[in-house]
Amino acid sequence: MLGTQVASDLDLDTVNSVVPLQTKWGKEYFRIGLTDITADTQEIKRKQLPIMALRLEPTVCKSIVKTLETLNNKTTHVDDALENTDNRVSESVSQILWKPTHFGAFLNKSPYAMNALILWRTIILPAFAVLAPLIAVVIPFFLLRFMNPDIQLSTDEYMTRVRHVLLQQITIPHFLRSRHPDDRLGFVFESLFIGLTLAMFISSIWSQINNAIHTRAIWFDLEERGDHIQHMYSVAKETIKQLKTLSPKAQRAAVKLIDSGEAAILGCKELDGLDGVATFGCVWNNSETVKILKVWLSQLDCYSAIASLDGICFPTIRKTVGIKLTDVHHPFVKGCISNNLITESHSILTGPNRGGKSTYCKSVGLAVVTAQTWGFAWATRMSFSPFKTVVTALEPTGLLGSLSTFEAEIEFAKSVLATEGLPAFVMMDEIFHSTNAGDGLEASRVFMSQLYEKSDIISIISTHYKDLAESFGGVATAIQMDATVGEEDRLIYSYKVTPGVSDKSSVVEILKERGLLPSAHPAPIARGQIIEERLPPEAETQ
Question: Where are its TM segments located (predicted)?
Answer without folding.
Answer: 118-144, 185-206
